[in-house]
Structures are given as structure tokens and as C-alpha cells.
Amino acid sequence: MPGAGGRYRWEFVGKEPVSFLVVAALLVLNTILLLGLGFIAKHLIPKAIANCQDCPALADSGIRYCVPGFVCWYANWSLAIQFVLLGLGALIMVINRKNVRRVR
């Protein structure tokens, strides 16, 4: 295969730690929510009404959306949450480095 000669991947020897599985599941869930939030805002959330608390993170082309406070908070912090989960996964691999090997 062209271009596949120098690639490595990392894997755990034996079973993965439960903490790594939890972080990996949260990372996948956050990725799905992060990518789907724009679609959900455009197609499922009603447009803003007069006395609505708008969310600047979900504003698109001047359209305001009425969302609860926790959805607006998540829209503002979802990318930071993604990087924190990715860092936690890397930290768990560093902590358990004796059980991690590089495979070609």
C-alpha cells in the first residue's frame, strides 16, 4: 500500500483501563453532539420570539434561537470540552505507559 509504511498506532497490552473507556465514550458522544448541534439548531429548534434569551454561539445569519441555558453553555464550551477529553485520554495513556505499545 502506498503511503502506509510509516504509520504507527497505539494499543493497550491486555485490557484497556475503565477510565480510558469512559473518556473514549465521552469523546465520541461529545463529537456527535458537537457536529450535530448546528443541524439541530437549524432544523429542530424554533426561531426566537420577542422575549427570548438568545444564544450567540448558535446564531446563524442573524437568526436567533430560543434554547435553554445549559444548551447555550454547551454550545459555548463544547470545543474546549473536546480538547479536555482528548487530553485526558492522552494523560491516561501516559500514566499507563507500561501497558501501552506501539504497533506498526
Map the helices and strands.
Elements (H helix, E strand, L loop, with lengths): L8 E4 L5 H26 L25 H27 L4 E4 L1
Antiparallel strand pairs: 1-2
Helix pairs in contact: 1-2
Account of the protein in words:
There is one protein chain. With 104 residues, this protein is mainly alpha-helical. The protein has helices spanning 18-43, 69-95, and strands at residues 9-12, 100-103. It has one domain. The chain has 2 helices and 2 strands; from the N terminus they run βααβ. The model has no long low-confidence stretch (mean pLDDT 81).
Task: Summarize the structure in short.
The chain has 104 residues and is mainly alpha-helical.
Supply database-style keywords.
two-stranded antiparallel ribbon, 2 strands, single chain, 104 residues, 8% strand, mainly alpha
| Beta-strand fraction estimate | 5-15%
The rounded distance between the terminal residues' Cα atoms is 13 Å
- Shape verdict: elongated
The tally of domains stands at 1
Number of strands: 2
Radius of gyration over alpha carbons? Answer: 20 Å
Query: What is the count of helical runs?
Result: 2
Specify the helix fraction band. 40-55%
The major pleated sheet works out as: 2 strands, antiparallel
Order of helices and strands: EHHE
Low-confidence stretches: none
Structural class: mainly alpha
Overall residue-averaged pLDDT value: 81
> What spatial order of strands do you see in the largest sheet?
1-2
